[in-house]
C-alpha cells in the first residue's frame, strides 16, 4: 500500500506589501501519495510556485499545517529544513541553475558533497544518474558547451543523484522547444515508473499537463480542481 508523503490542511500564505499583505494561497487542503506524477497548474500569479516552495521547505505557511515526509514544515529549524531538502527532496528549475565553472560530473556530484558519501559512492551515484538521462558521454563538459535540453537533463540527474523520495519541478520545460520538452518529460516519466520517485510539477505548459497523472488547478490562490487521469 502506498504511503502518504505530503499532507496540506487549510494552509494559507500571505506576503507583506507595505502596510497591508497579499494573500497568495487561500485555505489549501491537499494530500500526495508516494509515486505520484502530479502537476500544479494555473496561470501566472495563481500561487503555483509559492505552493511548491512551501512543500520543498523553502518557505513556511502563514496558517494551517503542511507535513512533508512526516515533518511539520513550520516547526522545522533552518538546519532541519536544510537537512530535509538535502536528503529527501530534489529540485528542478526552469533556468537549470547549473554552476558554469563546474563540469557535468561536478554539477551532478554537488548535492552528494553535503552527505556522508565516499568518493567511490559518489562516483557510482553520479554515473548512474547520468546514465538515466543519457549523458555519460558529457561527464567532462561544462554547461556552456551543452544545449538547453542537455542542461535540463543534467539538472534532472542532479536532482535524482541522491535518489530522493520527492522531486519538485518548477516550470522545467519553460526554456525548451517542443522536441526537447518531450524528451525531458519522457525521462522524468521513466524515472517515476522505474524508481517510484514522486514528482510534483508547477506548470502552465500544456505539453507538461498532458503527461501528468493528476492535475491540480490553482486559480487566485485557491484549488479550483483536482483530477486524476486514466490511461496515462
Question: What does this protein look like?
Answer:
- By secondary structure, the protein is α/β, with parallel strands linked by helices.
- The protein has one domain (4-228): P-loop containing nucleotide triphosphate hydrolases (Rossmann fold), CATH 3.40.50.
- It is built from seven helices and ten strands.
- A six-stranded mixed sheet has the order 6-7-8-3-9-10, sandwiched between helices. It has a four-stranded antiparallel sheet with strand order 2-1-4-5, with helices on one face.
- The longest helix is centred in the last third of the chain and has 18 residues, at 178-195.
- The model has no long low-confidence stretch (mean pLDDT 93).
Quick overview of this protein structure:
It is built from 7 helices and 10 strands. It is α/β, with parallel strands linked by helices.
Please specify the SSE layout and strand pairing.
Blueprint: E1 4-17, E2 20-33, E3 37-41, H1 48-55, E4 63-68, E5 71-72, H2 78-88, E6 89-93, H3 104-109, H4 119-132, H5 148-160, E7 166-170, H6 178-195, E8 198-203, H7 206-211, E9 214-219, E10 222-228
Parallel strand pairs: 3-8, 3-9, 6-7, 7-8
Antiparallel strand pairs: 1-2, 1-4, 4-5, 9-10
Helix pairs in contact: 4-5, 5-6
Descriptive keywords:
232 residues, alpha/beta, Rossmann fold, six-stranded mixed sheet, four-stranded antiparallel sheet, 7 helices, 30% strand
Kindly, what is the distance between the CA atoms of the first and last residues, rounded to a whole number of angstroms? 20 Å
Overall form: globular
By CATH reckoning, the class would read Alpha Beta
Structural class: alpha/beta
Amino acid at each position: 500500500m502506498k504511503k502518504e508523503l505530503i499532507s496540506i490542511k487549510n494552509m494559507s500564505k500571505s506576503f507583506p506589501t507595505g502596510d497591508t499583505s497579499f494573500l497568495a494561497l487561500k485555505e489549501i487542503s491537499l494530500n500526495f501519495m508516494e509515486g505520484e506524477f502530479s502537476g500544479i497548474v494555473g496561470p501566472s500569479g495563481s500561487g503555483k510556485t509559492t505552493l511548491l516552495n512551501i512543500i520543498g521547505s523553502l518557505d513556511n505557511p502563514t496558517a494551517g499545517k503542511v507535513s512533508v515526509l512526516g515533518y511539520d514544515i513550520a516547526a522545522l529549524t533552518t538546519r532541519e529544513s536544510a537537512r530535509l531538502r538535502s536528503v529527501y527532496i530534489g529540485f528542478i528549475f526552469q533556468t537549470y541553475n547549473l554552476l558554469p565553472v563546474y563540469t557535468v560530473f561536478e554539477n551532478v556530484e554537488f548535492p552528494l558533497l553535503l552527505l556522508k558519501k565516499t568518493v567511490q559512492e559518489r562516483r557510482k551515484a553520479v554515473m548512474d544518474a547520468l546514465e538515466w538521462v543519457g549523458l555519460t558521454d558529457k561527464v567532462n563538459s561544462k554547461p556552456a558547451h551543452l544545449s538547453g535540453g542537455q542542461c535540463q537533463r543534467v539538472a534532472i540527474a542532479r536532482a535524482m543523484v541522491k535518489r530522493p523520495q520527492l522531486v519538485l519541478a518548477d516550470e522545467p520545460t519553460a526554456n525548451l522547444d517542443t522536441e526537447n520538452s518531450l524528451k525531458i518529460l519522457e525521462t522524468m516519466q521513466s524515472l517515476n515508473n522505474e524508481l517510484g520517485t514522486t514528482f510534483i510539477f508547477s506548470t502552465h505548459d500544456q505539453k507538461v499537463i498532458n503527461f501528468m497523472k493528476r492535475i491540480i488547478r490553482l486559480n487566485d490562490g485557491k484549488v479550483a480542481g483536482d483530477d486524476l487521469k486514466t490511461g496515462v
